[in-house]
């Protein structure tokens, strides 16, 4: 299923360059006729090795190359189990004063990136292959749009100094081709974690925040789907997210995090696992229980809640800005 118009995207690139005139409602909406919605760009299947997968990667790549501020774009291609996979890693260095483009996967060597550690925000962009016409609205089109929105908002702060590099990683091959197992799942994150470890860069990651299954409509019980604090080593980061959510509650009237800080001893197999096994601190933004339409044909855009998507975007944007510690540069 292909729901994409090249002419529309060319117009959208123009919109990016005028983004300061727009607000969150312009970028995050479910209007299929919108010329600014980030969400509707990904209302399509995105199975590994398909034309839609390549199109998704091209959309994201073009998005970052047309930012008001330059991001480093790196495509990481590898082969496993007879498939070609493509991760995409985009980096905003802590001090944006460099001029080069690199779409060939090489680890950063310039001082602007190397002097600071990384905050990584991550998501997988592939969709499960064994459900025809499955678009994966929560799995993970909404999360892709959230990260693009955050990137665009941060790009508006072009004259600011950051203590951390901000990396946005789009993993390919999260879904299993057959029955989920350690060898048939998490292809992109397993390969990238291995390379980071081999190159000595795993210790440069201060925090990895993984988004998954976000933005779905809630059931009658508003607390039926909660994003818990899954790991004790990142409790302080979870508290920061909870504090930000509390601060904006009056305007959003949405509460997704667990104010009780419950002890949830659950291991969810997802793209953070290969990194956490290597000692990386991880925050897993995923609701429990999973939405009832997870891995069904009903995981479509009609089952998205735009207010929840905007709420998560606002919380994570504030958290990310605080984490990388923006400071004005006075010249």
Automatic annotation (TrEMBL):
Residues 1-18 form the signal peptide. One of its GO terms (biological process) is proteolysis. One of its GO terms (molecular function) is zinc ion binding. Its EC number is 3.4.-.-. InterPro entries: Peptidase_M28, QC/QCL. Residues 117-319 form the Peptidase M28 domain. Pfam families: Peptidase_M28. Keywords: Acyltransferase, Hydrolase, Metal-binding, Protease, Signal, Transferase, Zinc. Belongs to the peptidase M28 family. This is Peptide hydrolase.
């Amino acid at each position: 299923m292909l729901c994409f118009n090249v002419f529309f995207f060319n117009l959208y690139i123009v919109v990016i360059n005028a983004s300061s005139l727009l607000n969150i409602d312009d970028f995050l909406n479910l209007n299929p006729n919108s010329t600014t919605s980030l969400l509707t760009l990904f209302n399509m299947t995105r199975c590994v090795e398909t034309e839609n997968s390549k199109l998704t990667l091209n959309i994201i790549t073009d998005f970052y190359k047309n930012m008001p501020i330059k991001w480093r774009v790196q495509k990481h291609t590898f082969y496993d189990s007879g498939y070609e996979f493509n991760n995409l890693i985009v980096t905003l260095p802590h001090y944006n004063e460099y001029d080069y483009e690199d779409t060939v996967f090489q680890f950063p060597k310039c001082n602007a990136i190397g002097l600071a550690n990384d905050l990584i925000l991550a998501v997988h962009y592939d969709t499960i292959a064994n459900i025809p016409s499955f678009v994966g609205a929560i799995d993970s089109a909404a999360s892709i749009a959230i990260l693009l929105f955050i990137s665009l908002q941060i790009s508006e702060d072009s004259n600011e100094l950051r203590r951390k590099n901000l990396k946005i990683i789009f993993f390919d091959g999260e879904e299993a081709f057959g029955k989920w197992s350690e060898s048939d799942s998490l292809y992109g994150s397993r390969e990238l974690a291995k390379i980071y470890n081999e190159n000595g860069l795993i210790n440069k990651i201060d925090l990895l925040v993984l988004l998954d299954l976000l933005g779905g409509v809630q059931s009658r019980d508003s607390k039926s789907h909660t994003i818990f604090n899954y790991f004790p080593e990142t409790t302080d980061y979870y508290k920061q997210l909870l504090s930000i959510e509390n601060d904006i509650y009056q305007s959003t009237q949405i509460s997704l995090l667990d104010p009780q800080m419950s002890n949830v001893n659950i291991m969810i197999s997802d793209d953070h696992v290969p990194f956490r096994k290597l000692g990386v601190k991880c925050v897993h933004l995923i609701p429990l229980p999973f939405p009832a339409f997870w891995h069904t044909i009903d995981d479509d855009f009609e089952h998205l809640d735009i207010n929840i998507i905007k709420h998560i975007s606002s919380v994570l944007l504030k958290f990310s800005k605080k984490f990388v510690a923006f400071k004005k540069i006075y010249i």
